[in-house]
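Exercise: predict the fold of this chain.
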Amino acid sequence: MMDRNTETSHEDGSQGSVHTTGDAMSDERPQDFESPTQSGALAVDGSADAHDTVVTERPGTEAFAAPDAAARVDGPPAPGSERAGFEPPLATEPPFVAPEPSSPWTSPVVAAPAKRSGAGKVVAIAVASGLLAGAVGGVGAYAIAERADGSPAYTSSGSVLPQTDAALSTRPEGSIAAVAAAVLPTVVQIEEQGQGGGGTGSGFVIREDGYILTNNHVVEGAANGGSLTVRFQDGTSVPATIVGRDSSYDLAVIKVDKTGLPTATLGNSDGIVVGDATIAVGSPLGLEGTVTSGIVSALNRPVTAGGSGESSFINAIQTDAAINPGNSGGPLLDAEGKVIGVNSAIASLGASEGAQSGSIGLGFSIPINQAKRVADEIIQTGKSSHPIIGVSVNTQYTGEGAQIAQVTADGPAAAAGLKDGDIIVKVGDRQVADSTELIVAIRTYAPGDKVVLTLQDGSTVEVTLGSDSSVG
């Protein structure tokens, strides 16, 4: 069964559990992100740059002043100053000859490089080496850029790096960016406050006069004395009221006192196939306006969901688009930006798997065709209906199919001739593995539909589905 967004999903040994993604009870709020620290920034100490020289003086001698940095030096550079590929320029003046080691003029010159994030080495070099290093440093202070004609050019190290104009970043028609820009104004964040706490979820506008579709478990905490606030993409927030809820499908309609709202375009979930592109929009962990993408991973997944009350049985669309707590009630879109589902639940690993929470690539959405029928009924009557066959099932049965525990007197199954102990293995063309799959399969229909049930012995029975109301 689906748990709430408190991350306390039930676990069944090594099997994964599935829990709803909108927290109406867990007080999820946007995370605070700290700005990156500056501890990694390069610090430069001292006034000397990498090529300055500091002259030291031996006791009893006069200070030796280094020649001008522009002076040219003949002969090979002093040890420690060679650079690969460097050839000293030809001297244009009489060469400078370093005195013999016994001369007081050979006092060492210490070069103090600018400090970086690590400790620099202090290297003792000869005067000539300092001059050569300065000359090489002058050459190294240029970076290769590119001229307009494509040929290399040398620019100062302080120049701005080349960059394309923002207008050149064109996007193809139908891109995710284009879909997001069109749909985001129709998606809202829902903040719920109830007696047991609060939380955030998502929803989307389905009528311009303020009607919004979402999950029942997103708003159920405000059903008895709580409050709802809807936050739009432009930053405005307004109070909302519950129009109606259906816990059996985990759907609800709320309303705000606004008109002229942009509305989401509803698609047709009967037309999607595995591999179709999907886009999920919502407020995971309160981060409103979050857009993720993926594909339709599977169809007709039997999923149980819901909040603290009645369980919801969903014939779900499975997607690998990232869906996280707070995404509940938001739209799942196709590549054209049409709504094909209402995001409702995610699978999470059990305790034996490390109890990982959040998206693991297994998200589930209520097909929009089912959600549209429920929403229309709620808007018109304040409640909705779901189909029944008029039986209770044996949840302890471990064989293939769903075993009838008891047939309801005067119900649809009784009228069709079904009996206690009958095992249903197929609904229409859909195989049924257990009682959950039977319930999910039946709820893909509408009250009054005729359905052919296949029994374990191969016989078939046509049942006209009954109706049961759900008011939350």
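Check your answer against the key: The chain is about 10% helix and 30% strand.
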